[in-house]
Structure formats: C-alpha cells, structure tokens
Amino acid sequence: MAEHKAAMVVHGGAGRRPVGDDGERQAAVRRGLDAGWSRIGEGALTAVVAAVCRLEDEPLLNAGIGACLNDEGAVELDAGVMEGTALGVGAVAAVRDVRHPVELARHVLEHSPHVLLAAGGASRYAREHGVELADPSIFVTEHRRAAAAAAAAGDAGDTVGAVARDRSGRLAVAVSTGGVTAKTAGRVGDSPIAGAGFYADDSAGAVCTTGTGEGFIRLCLAYDLVTRLRAGQPARDAAGDALAALRDRTDGWGGLIVVTATGEIVAEQNSGHMPWASASDD
Ligand code: ASP
Fold this sequence. Notes:
Layout: E1 7-11, H1 22-37, H2 44-55, E2 77-83, E3 88-95, H3 101-111, E4 116-118, H4 119-128, H5 142-150, E5 160-165, E6 171-177, E7 198-201, E8 205-211, H6 213-219, H7 221-230, H8 235-250, E9 254-260, E10 265-269, E11 276-280
Parallel strand pairs: 3-4
Antiparallel strand pairs: 1-5, 1-11, 2-3, 2-6, 5-6, 7-8, 8-9, 9-10
Helix pairs in contact: 1-2, 6-8, 7-8
The chain binds aspartic acid.
C-alpha cells in the first residue's frame, strides 16, 4: 500500500470569454492531466512538469504554442516550478525562443544558483545548457492574432498549471503562460514569481494561480494561501478568502488550484470559467 495518497490537479486558465470552445479546452486540460498523472510514480515535480509541458503544446491554451501576443505582436513566455521539500524554485520570464519554458524553469531549479532568469539571458542559459530552443514564430497562432485584434489590452486567460502530491508526500507546482493580451513588451506577470503565481511547501500545500497577474503579485497570493493552510484554515475556505481578497483589494479576478499536505484537492475561480481536471489514488 502506498505510504501517502497521491493527488494531482491541472488547470487551463481562468480566462473570461464567451462560451464556445469550452469542451475543447477541457479536453486539452485532460490530456495534460493524463501526461502528468502517468509520471506521478517519478515524483511530484516530474509529474507537474510533464503535465505543463504537454499543455504548452495545446494551441488553444495560453502557454507555449498558442500563447497570447504582446503589443509588438510577439510571444513572450513566463514559467515557474517549485518543489515543497527543500523549497527549490526555478523560473523564467519573457523568453521568446525556448521550446518548453517549463523545462527551462526546471533546469534553473536543479542546476542554477539563481531562481529567476529573464529574456535574452534566459535564452543564453538555455543554449549553453542544451535546453531546446525554437523559432519564435512557432508560438504564434492565427487564433491569437485574431484575439489580439479583438481583445482589450490586458485581457488574461488560459494560463496553464499543475499541482501534485506524490506517494512520498512531496508537493510540487508548475505553471506556464504567455501572460495577457497586448501586454507591454517586457511585462512580467505573476506566473514566474514564486509566492505570487505559485508556491509549494510540503508542510502545508501547493498552489497555482491564474488571472490578473498584477493582483496576485500585489497580494503575494500563492504564499498567502499556503500560509492560511499552514495555520489550519480549511483549504476551500482559504481559497475562497484568497480570491475574495483578489477581487476586493485589487479589483482582480482569476482562479487557483490547490493540493494540500494531506492530498486534498481544491479548484476555485471567480471569473466564471476555469477548465480543470484532477486525479488521485482515491
Ligand atoms: N496570470 C497570468 C498573467 O498575469 C495570466 C493568466 O493567468 O491568465 O500573466
């Protein structure tokens, strides 16, 4: 019998949009979950990275291929990973030519003395360490070109993320995004900022957020939520309070997924929409 119950949650972003392709987004999230859950035996970190790596290839979601465009019509990608045992963090911001930003983030976690690399320096690090690069044009889709023409600047959506607890009781989180539509080139959101867009601590829980990144950064929301869990607040209440603070204190909106230190799963949003899927030993 497994010593700890394994559990995993994956989301495809809390973007506000007219109903239309919800089924396709949900199916994409399900593929991400399958890719991650099939690796849970290799540990929580490997599982969440596998899930997010798969989702970076889903053109409907705002990460990797199909990420939203900035105000120069280019894709700039952010990603982050954290493991909750040693509190290891790796993140990359505003990269344009890295095939899988989440894999580069994991490389930073495991091999760099730093926690966050950005832009050209992050690309150089990838090149020097054999992390796959890509022609920036592969990330740009017609769907996002049309969205950029139609959407208001700052519209967010479809960021991807995963949280997991493995059978050793270790927690991990991974997140990847193109940010928000028509963002100022160089803008970095919450997704590569530990404590804002993601956090994991084996003693409390792992959290991944999606939505208006500036609000998550101002509230240090992922860390705040983990702190609530550590203090013993029930996970669903803690998630609800965190999202209420996002709305009331910053006029922000979004969603989040949580797996607690005991393997409890929570997925909440206040945007009206967030495809998510979960698996557990239950
Ligand atoms: N939080 C992301 C950002 O602000 C966007 C999103 O999750 O939709 O970059």
